[in-house]
Amino acid sequence: MKKRRRFSTQKAGLPPGTLIGYGFDPAVKTKVRVIDFNSDQFYESEIHSIDDLSSFKQTETVTWIDIVGASQIEVLDKIGQLFGIHNLVLEDMLNTSHRPKTEDYGEYLFLIMKNIRLQDNDLLIEQISLIIGKNYVISFLENDFNVFEAVRNRLRSSKSKIRKTGADYLGYALLDLVVDNYFIALEHVGEQIDLLEERVIQEVDATQVKEIQGLRTDLLFIRKAIWPLREIISNLERGDSELLSPQMHIYIRDVYDHVVQIIDTVETYREMVNGLMDIYLSSISNRMNEVMKVLTIISTIFIPLTFLAGLEGMNFKTMPELDLDYGYPVLLLFMLLIVLGMLRFFRKKQWL
C-alpha cells in the first residue's frame, strides 16, 4: 500500500465547524464540474463561479456537482451555503482521515467512503464524500483521478437508465462504482498472493518476508476501509429516508451483498497471507535443520578421528606402534575405513 504524503493542519482548540483541510495535497487545484440532466436534456460544464450554480438549485432536473481538491476551501463553503449544508458536514468532508459513515440530515444524506484505486502496481486509498439531496448530488474528492468517469459516460448516453431516474439512483451509481473498485484492488492482491505463493514453495529468500508483510498491510488497509462501508449501506437499506425511493432498496441491497462478498474475500486473503508466512518460516526452519544436520554429521565423523589422532599424539616413551614401518599409513587407512563405515551407516538410516 503506497503511503501518500499527508499535509496536516493543527485543529486543536478551534470551534466546531471550522473549515480547514486536513490531509489534502495543496498542489491539487480545486475544480468544480456540474452535470445537469433528465431523460431529455443533458448539460455538462466546468464551473468557474459558484454563483453559476444557483440556477440549478430550483430546477426539476437532476444536478451533479463534482468537486475536486481543497486548495480553495471557500469554494466548498459557498456551495455549502447555497445548498444549506451544515458546517459540521463540510468539516468532515475536509478531513481525509475521517472514518466512513452515513448520516441523514432530513433534506440530504451525507456519506463518507474510502475509494481504492490501482496506480503503478500500488494501491491508493483516498476519501470520497457524497451528499444526496432531493434533486442534486454533491461529490467531493481528494484528487482528480476520474474515478467517476464511467458514470459520466453513462450519463452522456440518452439511453442510460440514470438519465431516467432521480438523484437517489445517481448516488447509488456512484456508490456502486466505489464498491466495484474494491473488486479490482482485491483481484490485484489475489494475483500477488498467487505469484508469491509459487515462489515461496519453490525456494525462499530474504525478500519474500517483506513482500508478505506488504500484502498484510494492503489487506489491513482494505479491511479498515470496507468494514464500515457494510454498516453504511446497511443503514441506507434499513432506513426510511424520503430521499430514497422504495425501488432503490433492492439496488442498495445488491451493493450490500457485494460489500459482504468483498469482506469475505479480504478475510480469505488474510488467512492465505498468514499461511504464506507460516510456509516461509517453516522453510527457513527446515533449511536451518538441514544445515545443522550436515554440521552434526561432520562433527560425528570427526569424533573417532579426533580420538585416534589424540591417542597417537600422546607423549609417552613406550608406544610400540610408533616404531612400525607402516604405522602411519595403516592409521590413515583405518581412519578412512571409519569414515566410509559411518557414511554408509548414515545413508542406510537415510540421514544423508
UniProtKB/TrEMBL annotation:
Any Pfam family matching the protein: CorA
Keyword Ion transport recorded: yes
Bilayer disposition of the protein: Multi-pass membrane protein
Keywords for the protein's UniProt record, in alphabetical order: Cell membrane, Ion transport, Magnesium, Membrane, Transmembrane, Transmembrane helix, Transport
Regions that span the bilayer: 294-314, 326-346
Function according to Swiss-Prot or TrEMBL: Mediates influx of magnesium ions.
Family according to the record: Belongs to the CorA metal ion transporter (MIT) (TC 1.A.35) family.
The protein's name: Magnesium transport protein CorA
